[in-house]
Specification:
Elements (H helix, E strand, L loop, with lengths): L1 H8 L5 E10 L11 E2 L1 E14 L4 E6 L2 E8 L4 H6 L2 H17 L6 E7 L9 H16 L6 H16 L6 H8 L4 E6 L4 E6 L7 E7 L11 H15 L21 H25 L7 H15 L4 H12 L4 E5 L6 E7 L3 H14 L6 E5 L6 E2 L2
The structure holds 2-deoxy-2-fluoro-alpha-D-galactopyranose.
Pfam families: GalKase_gal_bdg, GHMP_kinases_C, GHMP_kinases_N
Protein name: Galactokinase
Family: Belongs to the GHMP kinase family. GalK subfamily.
């Protein structure tokens, strides 16, 4: 990226930082409910080359669009909020760091490049805001720890992008380790690295992008979050994490049926994340397949955040021989993941895509991902 940066800004960058996208194996919408999730960082990354400036300007360019954006480093929340595209996340991260940490922070110029697909549900936004935060942490000498970075990244989503999200994505992207998933406990605030062992077991993870795009700022995400809060309030618990799986049935009929279904999804998906992590820890990663597939049924029927094209992708992957499949991420569009035997991956990818087309949907884009390291300095 050094050459592209020099061509754009006329000087070498001070460094290049990157952050991965993520897939979540299991545990969906559990983050803002104090539950568990088991994501990993993927080998698709967003890179940001940055050079500090002597003045107070921020200039942002990407290697895939011609226009560059410019703003003062002390730009207000409203300015960051009004920005569009990739610059919104970079300006947003700079704004949140300066405000929350009360630091001056010099101007800078930044070039962004990425192979994390956008709108697919693999956290392209968390990758960009996290790459920006690790870069500015170093250049501005902030000494932040990863947990603090997670909180600041979430603020960018909540305040700048207006997406009322939890901390799953930032935690995954900032804490990921190659060949590991990370078991996140959002009540305890802990993160445990779990060696995946996929390669040794001959397993591969496919991402099946439905091409149905989602937007958590305007879509059903906020509504689901409110329904979970409603369920917790009626049950008299601080978060749905306080409920054990065998308590859920007793709440049927004591709250609106759809609110009870949301509760059931959250409680059972936390249990599935716990069981999946346990199997992986025991060196039995193949056996998580059925948990993934159950997790999808729970999203489709109880959380009602799936879409027909993703249901079709999950069914098609299973019919083609996947060990398990489910929608990953916040839903209302995005992608499914399928756990497959590496030797069958290419065949399953084609057969599943064909079957989705036969079911009347757009041909999905299918790609394999490996568990990769979290946000870091690359050069
Ligand atoms: C999105 C959100 F950003 C996360 O916080 C999480 O809630 C996820 O949807 C669902 O598990 O990615």
């Amino acid at each position: 990226m050094h050459e592209a940066f020099a061509a754009r800004f006329g000087a070498e960058p001070d460094g290049v930082w990157s952050a991965p996208g993520r897939v979540n194996l299991i545990g969906e919408h559990t983050d803002y409910n104090g539950g568990l999730a088991l994501p990993f960082g993927i080998d698709r990354r967003t890179r940001i080359a940055v050079r500090q400036r002597d003045d107070d300007r921020i200039r942002i360019a990407t290697d895939f669009a011609d226009e560059a954006r410019s703003a003062p480093v002390d730009a207000s929340l409203a300015t960051a909020h009004a920005a569009t595209g990739w610059s919104r996340y970079v300006l947003g991260a700079a704004h949140v760091l300066r405000r929350e940490l009360d630091v001056a922070g010099s101007g800078f110029e930044a070039l962004v490049a990425s192979d994390v697909p956008v709108g697919v549900g693999v956290s392209s936004s968390a990758a960009l805001e996290s790459a920006t935060i690790v870069a500015l942490d170093e250049l501005w000498g902030l000494g932040l720890d990863r947990r603090e970075m997670v909180r600041l990244g979430q603020l960018v989503e909540n305040e700048v992008v207006d997406a009322p999200t939890g901390t799953l994505d930032q935690s995954a992207v900032l804490l990921a380790q190659r060949d590991h998933a990370v078991l996140l406990d959002f009540r305890a605030g802990t993160a445990e690295q779990v060696p995946l062992g996929f390669e040794a077991a001959g397993l591969e993870t496919l991402v099946i992008d439905s091409l149905v795009r989602h937007d958590h700022a305007t879509g059903g995400y906020g509504e689901r979050r409110r329904e979970c809060e409603q369920a917790a309030a009626i049950a008299g618990v601080r978060t749905l994490r306080e409920l054990a799986p065998d308590e859920v049935a007793s709440w049927a009929g004591r709250m609106p049926a759809h609110v009870h279904r949301r509760m059931r999804h959250i409680v059972t998906d936390t249990e599935r994340a716990r069981l999946a992590a346990e199997l992986v820890r025991q060196g039995r990663p193949r056996e998580i397949g059925p948990l993934l597939t159950e997790g999808h049924a729970s999203q489709r029927d109880d959380f009602e955040n799936s879409v027909p094209a993703i249901d079709a992708a999950v069914e098609a992957a299973l019919a083609a021989g996947a060990l398990g499949a489910r929608m990953t991420g916040g839903g209302f569009g995005g992608a499914a993941i399928a756990l497959v035997d590496e030797s069958a991956a290419a065949r399953i990818a084609v057969e599943a895509a064909d079957a989705v087309v036969s079911a009347g949907h757009a041909r999905p884009v299918v790609f394999a991902v490996r568990a990769d390291d979290g946000a870091r300095r690359d050069a």
